[in-house]
Amino acid sequence: MYEDFHRIARAVGLTRVIRTPRQQLATFGTTNLKYYIVTEPIYKDLETQANEVVVRDGQVTAQRPNIVTPSYMLNLGGFSAEAREYMEYLSDKFGVNSAGLLYQYSNNPGTTEIVDGNVEGVAEKISQDLDQRDVGMAVVLSGLDELWDVSLFKFIYEFTASSSVSNAREMATMGLLDPVPNLDVPKGVIDKIDELFSQVKTGLEPSILHRELLRWGLFEYYETRFLALFK
Among 102, 128, 182, 221, which is most exposed with the fewest C-beta within 10 angstroms? Predict the structure, then answer.
């Protein structure tokens, strides 16, 4: 385990951001981020190919940030006892319905190529091409070949942290983080539930809406409206 941690720490330490995206994560929509990761091949120390690098590309899709609270997170499954204990700590410290943002990602790897050159030169060439084509949502990274996805995760984590400030500010300006009287949940949650009701009428699986109502503890409040969907 210590050896794995050491390898991961090394991969994190070797990660470099050569080109940053020109925009941040969208507050009210899906963000598609193209990535390029340039690494020295793992076989470089075993063979003589000193002028080859590996270029991987792909796309990370970030869904629209969801408003959550410690209470909501405690109703989600799949967390360890330690994670639930931490969420209970947040609930006690900031309030059971204090608003935060939850980001969901999916990674769609693309191609892997072996090209001539060195890491710095190839990464710079890719960056210049992106600039010339005015590709805003693209990042170029360098890192450790066998743990290239660690570099990607490190960047996504930091990119989310920097975007969350502006995302939260924009939502707060629109009042979406303000608690709704009597329901004690953020206004943005009520807007999302109203949106889900509309989507059910156009084909969304009702169980998705039902599950969301239960997680927020709002099923009793919306029960009549929910059952009316089946009449």
Answer: 182
How is residue 20 annotated by DSSP?
-
Residue pair 153/37 in contact (Cβ under 8 Å)? The answer is no
Q: How far separated are the first and last CA of the chain, in Å rounded?
A: 56
| 155-201 tens-digit pLDDT | 999 999 999 999 999 999 999 999 998 888 999 999 999 999 999 99
Write the pLDDT tens digit of every residue in 64-98.
Answer: 999 988 888 877 766 667 767 777 877 788 776 77
Q: What is the DSSP string of 55-77?
A: EEEEEEEEPPPEEE-HHHHHTSS
**Residue 32: strand pairing partners:** 61
Token pair of 44, please?
């470089």
Helix (H) or strand (E) holding 4: helix 2-14
The C-alpha atoms of residue 15 and residue 155 are separated, in whole angstroms, by 8
